Amino acid sequence: MNFSSKLLEEAVQAFASLPGIGRKTALRLVLHLIQREPQHTERFVQSLLRMRQGVRSCTVCYNLADSELCQVCIDPRRDRSLVCVVESIRDVMAIEDTHQYRGLYHVLGGVISPIEGIGPEQLHIEGLIQRVAQGEIQEVIMAVSPTIEGDTTIFYLSKKLREYPVRLTTIARGVSFGGELEYADELTLGRSIVARVPYQTDATSL
């Protein structure tokens, strides 16, 4: 792909560095910005800068937030006796899109994966334990992708939480084993949340 402008080439390379954006799509986006009014491009750039400088992790649930706490944590309409444990922020968005859940969240930041060198200490597990220890939470929903790593993480969490008087549940297996939660369709994911089941384990014998 030949460019008559070095600035144009640099802009295309910047867009093409984003996931899922090829060079042809990047070129189409850049040309679109060039053809719009300069104010449009300035607003576009400024919104990205404000996002990058202002967005942070919620100090309670580790979801994305504009301030210390995210919009979910400060919402008084949320059921604070329910906490849904997920791997990533994208999973929070996927569950919110189902409109079937009105509790709180806790974002682990991944799953336990010894092969990839990810242990419990790399995840936001201690923050979850501290929230449960406060006593307001009555149910912890394990909405982790049904993979081997996900099941390992759920099992580990169940052992850490067994000393607290909370109900542990998992989403129903409407999401196929080995699938990623964020890619499940809204109807299936919503039904999986509503039809959650108690988590059964022999962890008490360990």
Query: What portion of residues belong to β-strands?
Result: 5-15%
Kindly report how far apart the N and C termini lie: 61 Å
The appropriate CATH architecture of the largest domain is: 3-Layer(aba) Sandwich
Low-confidence stretches: 202-206
CATH topology of the largest domain: Dna Topoisomerase Vi A Subunit, Chain: A, domain 2
Approximate helicity band:
40-55%
As an assembly, this protein is single chain
Number of domains: 2
Q: Briefly note the structural class of the backbone.
A: alpha/beta
In short:
This protein is of the alpha/beta class. The chain has 8 helices and 7 strands, in the order αααββαβαβαβαβαβ.
Can you put this structure into words, describing what you see?
The N and C termini lie far apart (about 60 Å). The strands form 2 sheets. A 5-stranded mixed sheet has the order 4-3-5-6-7. A two-stranded antiparallel sheet has the order 1-2. The protein is built from 8 helices and 7 strands; from the N terminus they run H-H-H-E-E-H-E-H-E-H-E-H-E-H-E. Mean pLDDT is about 90; it is low at about 200-205. The protein is an alpha/beta fold and about 210 residues long. Strand 1 and strand 2 (about 65) form a beta hairpin.
